[in-house]
Amino acid sequence: MHLRRIILDTYEDVCRAAADVYTKQLEEKSNSVFCFATGSTPIGLYEELVRRYEAGNLDFSKARSFNLDEYYPIKKDHPQSYNYFMRQNLFDKINLSKYSLPNGEASDAEAECLRYDMEISDAGGIDLMLLGIGHNGHIGFNEPAVSYPMGTSFVKLTESSINANSRFFSADEVQPTEALTMGIGEIMRSKKIIMMITGEGKAEIAMKLFERKIHSDVPACFVKLHPNAIVFLDRAAARDILVFEENLKKERIKAVQEWTGLRG
Ligand code: GLP
């Protein structure tokens, strides 16, 4: 059983391929329920979706969306909140009927997690889930751990994620160290999953994801168990995978040559 993947030349190619999935999804089900992700990886995809919408080739009017995660606590209008990010990059630019994110302003984080799960379940679950991947293999803010939550949960971020995201916060801003994230169970219940992995910085974690193993400390490995998941990578992120597979091929050829040589 292999996790399906498509390796494309550039970041732009990955964004276009991912956008094609949305085009197809909306053709098949105009009232699809999406789950979007944040981070720098999907920005090009969002730009492509906006372009297609503006060109009249995409209509989100019957669709609605959720998002994977949100810092906690954080104001919706904080420039680093995921709510703000999504409005700036996508929601304010397309005609989505409704969007929801975990509420970083809720007074009770645990109660907010339960409320968010109910909202997702009332919407009928997620049709198409978009995932990025953290350098440590996190999806959403499900950080490497011994056990993983089924539903939305209130989590502490790891040093790795805090550092990776610190580039977005200025020195005088207090960077949140906790977040609300959709759980692994909810992610896995999505009907389809697409994951985008781009850039050389993700080459190592991409390699780990495609090893023929389930690493318990790489939350993204759960996606390998999903029946309808696909990963889009650019060549930079696929660097180690391509080197590994090239070496494997050479070894096989050598082994066959040695064997036929022995017999000759
Ligand atoms: C954040 C988000 C993840 C995202 C990850 C990778 O931590 N919670 O959903 O996948 O960052 O971000 P980037 O695409 O910037 O590498």
What can you tell me about this protein's structure?
The chain is of the alpha/beta class. The protein has one domain: 3-Layer(aba) Sandwich (Rossmann fold). It contains eight helices and ten strands. It has helices at 11-28, 43-54, 82-89, 109-122, 159-165, 184-188, 203-209, 239-263, and strands at residues 4-8, 33-36, 64-67, 69-72, 98-100, 128-131, 153-156, 178-181, 192-197, 229-234. The strands form two sheets. A seven-stranded parallel β-sheet has the order 1-10-9-6-2-3-5, covered by helices on one side. Strands 4-8-7 form a three-stranded antiparallel β-sheet, with helices on one face. Strand 2 (33-36), helix 2 (43-54) and strand 3 (64-67) form a beta-alpha-beta unit. Helix 1 crosses helix 2 (43-54). It is globular. The mean pLDDT is 96. The protein binds 2-amino-2-deoxy-6-O-phosphono-alpha-D-glucopyranose. 2-amino-2-deoxy-6-O-phosphono-alpha-D-glucopyranose is lined by residues 37-41, 68-69, 132-134, 140-141, 161, 165.
